[in-house]
Amino acid sequence: MKQQELEQRVTTAVEHATPDKLETVLSECETRQHAIANLAPQRKKKITGWLRVCAAAAAVVILFVSVYFIARFRKDTAVDSIVMLDVNPSFSLSINSKEKVLSFDALNEDAKAVLGNMDLSGVSLEVAVNALIGSMLQNGYLDELQNSILVSVENDNFERSERLREKVATAINHCMSSDQLEGAVLSQTVRSTDAQIKALSEKYKISLGKAVLIQELISQDATLRFEDLAALSVNEIALISHSKKLAADSISQTGTVSAKAYISKDEALAIACTHAKVSKQDLSELEIEFDSEKGVMIYEVEFRAGTLEYEYDIDAKTGAILKQETENKTGAASGSQDSFIGEAAARDAALQHAGFQETGVTFLHASIEYDDGKPEYYEVEFNVGNKEYEYKIDLYSGAVLSFKTETDNAVAPTADPASPTTAPGSYIGETAAKAAAFAHAGIDEAAVTKIKIEFESDDDDGPVYEIEFEKGNIEYEYEVDARTGAILKYESEIDD
Questions:
Q1: Are strands 362-371 and 374-384 parallel, antiparallel or unpaired?
Q2: How far apart are CA 84 and CA 413, in angstroms?
Q3: What distance in Å separates the CA atoms of residue 359 and residue 373, rounded to the nearest whole number?
Q4: CA distances (Å), 41 to each of 8, 45, 53, 309, in order?
Q5: Average pLDDT of the residues of the chain
Q6: Is the dihedral of CA 31, 32, 38, 43 positive or negative?
Q7: Contact 362, 383 (CB under 8 A)
Q8: Per the confidence metrics, is the pTM higher than 0.70?
């Protein structure tokens, strides 16, 4: 309905609702006119003027009442403030000056699931907030593992915005405490003046308030990426912020953010020390922080032991080592091998990882690989039956940096008493990865030739098994998630 049509309908309604006293007033004026005329006929013209004054006064009253009701209607239908709620579900509520909900938006799929069939139009802000919080509690989006919610209020009047922020935060705290949940409520006031922030909120289907918070954290730590944080819950963002000691000046917080879903810092450190084969007592320059990698919460563990610096990325939920780097800080000239573990130790590290003894392998080879004259790692290669193994071993620590295997089924296999099936950390292993690829392709392993398997863990794809194999004249290439067994990529082509 157009605004002009709406105003006309309101005016008509007001006119019908207003008591019509004009005829009564005119009648009384006319009676008075006759009475006065009988006594003083010479005043007839003044009586006519009085009649006109009465009519004008009545018209003014009607106009005033109509304008009043139209103004009130406009005020009741005008957006006064926008209240945003973010957990991982994200909501936006537009309210009028009486704190009645005019419209509401579920900004992502999780929010749509929480909203369900609820219609919040016309209800009070407090009722709407309680309904949404109750649904998030019921559907498991708020619990003791993820207990944090972000409240953002947008209003040009700062005092008005602050009052609303405090009111909503108080209502949420009361609602969660009624459910015996010790929640953490983060609240802020925002403005929509930044077009870039608004565009980011729309792109990642989050509220303007969450986008403002993320951007503020990134401004303090350039290593953080918007796309990574946008995929996280408010609870996870808060943990990262607190761990990195980032100060969001606009944020007010009540309650403590939960870290119960993750292993502790001490546990993450113990995992790193065990892998590096060092004692906690020997560590210096220790730093442990929450961070995220492609939507996965991790611990970044950095420390120094002797002349070696270690960096670990550890899955904050499972404790799996996702990434590891070691660097020698002796200050020796590039290419110096004084502190290298040696080829023999590199061979032992590869064989131990693969589960073989040196007597059971053939074509054993180990050497230092160089890049632009700088030593990078030990490369260890060996064969067991119809399998070829290739390892990259850290020069200083002996850690397995990467490994790959290739199988040629055209060659009759020999005994393989300890064939490795498990990659470093909590991975599914080669056997399971192959089975996932063969099942997806609909191929029996017995019909496959020239199988090649490579384990890789990098910043782009994470830990994956890269599997290549042939059946007849068809070549297949697969990438299988090393933790879950999910098929990430696959290709097949006919080799003419």
A1: antiparallel
A2: 63
A3: 33
A4: 45, 9, 20, 115
A5: 80
A6: negative
A7: yes
A8: no
